[in-house]
Amino acid sequence: MNNDGFCDWVASIERGDCGFTYIRFYNDAPHWVRNEAVNRFGKGTVFLPPRQSRRLPTRHAA
Question: Alpha helix (H) ranges present in the chain?
Fold first, then answer.
């Protein structure tokens, strides 16, 4: 998966104590982003509950 696709689903990432990474996805994130996070950040990945859905860019009609 490319970095852009993964980052689109991440609401927040914080590095915590003892090497843990706290990550929060949007409500509608597909399952593969969770697997990608573990591959990138390792076993110290802590998933926080989602708070919101991803906001898609709005397109204004001309």
Answer: 3-8, 31-41
Residue type, 46: V
d(CA 41, CA 16): 12
- Write the Ramachandran bin of 19: left for phi over 0, alpha for psi from -120 to 50, otherwise beta: left
pLDDT digits (tens, 9 = 90+) for 21-53: 999 999 989 999 999 999 999 999 999 999 877
Total domains in the chain come to 1
Provide the whole-model pTM: 0.73
Structural domain containing residue 43:
3-48
Q: Which residue has the tokens 């689903």?
A: 9
